[in-house]
Write a structure and sequence with these properties.
There is one protein chain. The protein is 31% helix and 21% strand. It contains 5 helices and 7 strands, in the order ααββαβββββαα. The chain is of the alpha+beta class. The chain starts with 6 loop residues before the first helix and ends with a helix. The strands form 2 sheets. The protein has a 5-stranded antiparallel sheet with strand order 5-2-4-3-7. Strands 1-6 form a two-stranded antiparallel sheet.
Length: 153
């Protein structure tokens, strides 16, 4: 059974991602040329890097809890979580996560398709929703994130 992704949220996510680029026209040109586009951390988001395997487990642990975009690099086995800008030390003690500094660039494919082995595990949806660092820390923690109902059971 094929999974269908509605086109409107994908387009909205693409527009949002372009709005985060310092030069949206150059970013679109890179994508049109089938190249990744470098978008820096800082003004619109911070980036936390983790292994793909740990990230997939964290996504599973988060379940239906909303989180922001997650970009994966399949050949390298890495994933990047987009977090609110201005993080300080909230994730410093979380094993397996590296928060990159402001100005660090994330080489992004467009939202509409993968490029160079990179694809969006969790698509930008156009709302600007980013991952809450507290939930991400819990999902990567030893016990993992557990929804409230499950924790009370």
């Amino acid at each position: 059974m094929a999974t269908h992704v509605p086109l409107a949220p994908v387009r909205a996510g693409q527009e949002w991602l372009l709005s985060c680029a310092p030069d949206p026209v150059a970013t679109q040109q890179a994508w049109d040329a089938q190249q990744l586009a470098a978008i820096p951390a800082g003004p619109h988001w911070q980036v936390a890097e983790a292994t793909l395997a740990r990230s997939l487990e964290a996504i599973r642990r988060l379940g239906s809890n909303p989180h922001g975009p997650v970009l994966a690099d399949i050949p390298r086995g890495l994933a990047w979580w987009l977090l609110p800008p201005g993080l300080t030390d909230e994730l410093d003690d979380v094993a397996g996560l590296t928060v990159h500094p402001t100005g660090w660039t994330l080489n992004c494919p467009p939202v509409v398709h993968s490029l160079s082995g990179r694809w969006w595990l969790a698509l930008p949806d156009g709302t600007g929703q980013l991952t809450d660092p507290t939930l991400l820390a819990a999902a990567f923690g030893p016990g993992g994130y557990r929804p409230e109902a499950e924790a009370q059971a």
